[in-house]
Known about the structure:
Blueprint: H1 2-8, H2 21-29, H3 44-48, H4 55-68, H5 73-79, H6 87-96, H7 100-104, H8 108-112, H9 119-129, H10 132-143, E1 168-172, H11 180-189, E2 193-195, E3 204-207, H12 213-221, E4 225-226, H13 228-235
Parallel strand pairs: 1-2, 1-3, 3-4
Amino acid sequence: VVRAVEHFVSRQAMDIAGFGIRQAELFVERGFIRDLADIYQLPWDEIRRLEGYGDKRVENLRAAVEASKDRPIHRLLTGLGIRYVGAVVAELLTQHYHSLFDLMNASPEELSAIEGIGPKIAASIHDYFSVPANRALLEKFARLGVRVAETPPAPVEQAAVQPLAGLTFVVTGTLSGFTRTEVEKFIKAHGGKVAGSVSSKTSYVVAGEAAGSKLAKAQQLGVPVIDEATLRAMAEGRR
Length: 239
């Protein structure tokens, strides 16, 4: 449970400031946390009586926990610790499922039909939500006021010309001129698709600084690797 809590509160997941491994160990040991949702019903009056937990520290931690309730749902999905579902895959899934209850009830066939979600990831998600305790956990999050659904974003305005139509891109590393969300919108606006993992169906990998395993996979499969400038040139029809 301690490691699960540590992952859940981490920056890539629910990003709860001031909540780290020491708090996870202490609160689990004291019986305050038995499952991840218990983070949202901690006994703050009892915590105030613990050594080193004065009023200011407790209020700061409590405020950070409360603030995390409104994180985008892909962060909650990341925090659940489902095998193969890291931050990138979670964000991809929540572009298709705007409610985690809809995702919970999706079949492996529906999941694997999403570009970038193969049978292995689909099976892992389905297996996780086939466990009654995990379904109950999501319901508990909802009861405690944690965001489990969000309004679908407005449709991306499409460019008049679609130079990237029919192409599938995977983005890896840090780009200088785009955030991850911005580059995905840019690709889609020019007709392309964005996948979360590299496969033989990938047309191009867009690699930035500190590109990791996806770059290695692209090289292994012989998938062309381009930089940000080349992507822009392709979108503008200059390549």
